[in-house]
Amino acid sequence: MKYSDAIGFLNSLVNYEKLAKPRNGFKLDDIRNLLELAGKPHEKLKHIILVAGTKGKGSVCYMLEAALRGCGMRTGMFLSPHVSTVRERIQIDGRPVSKRRFSHLVEQYVLLVKKQPVSYFELCAAMAFETFARAEVDYAVVEVGLGGRLDATNLAEPDVSVITRIGFDHLRVLGGSIGKIAREKAGIMRYGKPVVIGKQAAVAGWELEHEVHKKGAVLITAAKQVRVWDIRTSDTKVRFSAFGELGAARFSLPLLGRHQVENCRTVLA
């Protein structure tokens, strides 16, 4: 299959990211059936880190992936939406998959999608799981698309769940309050598994902690786990000191904004 044909097929699917009106309802039946037909690639992954939230989840994913790769791990990363090319959504060791690999992935799934129709995002998620399984990555860093509980990525079983700052996103889909949105995001928590929670507004923080205890997850609060000080910003970067379980260090991030300090603190936790 040519790359242009692969893009054409993908673009022929319903893309809820571009629709003016929100999806009427979310369910996991379609993507679950597709993954069944594909041989359950999401169940073949060694370790998964699932990242949900309203703000900062993309930055957290990039930082997590870079940190794991810096420790010698083979990494996979799934992101959405993309900026320049859809191949950004599926990365191995910090690099988007090649056009050839992407085309092969789409070709592999064409017949399966004809048997079980799915959305643009769902197919991308399935192809990401397939890619990570074949590459035998040590860690797959997976960004949740919308919400958490009923997102396609939540069919994977995370070893660690991460929830960044929650705000008023997709109100008509996730609910009309911070509390309801927080409960949807909490759907990525797992019994007995750690969940790292970034800095939150009071209501969201309370709701998330309540869900942690309700689900039997292991709570790790970034603000309590990692102390930061001496924050300095410039036109090109932000610098700060941090202290956590692994000791103290001075950090310099080539990113703009003090909010990146909180994102990095979440990663360090």
From TrEMBL:
Pfam families associated with the record? Mur_ligase_M (PF08245)
Entry keyword set: ATP-binding, Ligase, Nucleotide-binding
- The protein, known as: Mur ligase central domain-containing protein
- Using the record's annotation, list all stretches that form the Mur ligase central domain: 51-266
Q: Name one GO molecular function term.
A: dihydrofolate synthase activity
Task: Tell me which species this is from.
Answer: candidate division WOR-3 bacterium JGI_Cruoil_03_51_56
Q: Tell me which SUPFAM superfamilies the record gives.
A: MurD-like peptide ligases, catalytic domain
User: Which domain of life does the protein's organism represent?
Assistant: Bacteria
The keyword Nucleotide-binding is assigned to this record:
yes
Q: Which family does it belong to?
A: Belongs to the folylpolyglutamate synthase family.
**Entry GO terms, CC:** cytoplasm
Q: Which PANTHER family match?
A: DIHYDROFOLATE SYNTHETASE-RELATED, FOLYLPOLYGLUTAMATE SYNTHASE-RELATED
| Membrane-traversing stretches | none
Signal sequence, start to end? none
Q: Is the Ligase keyword given for this protein? A: yes
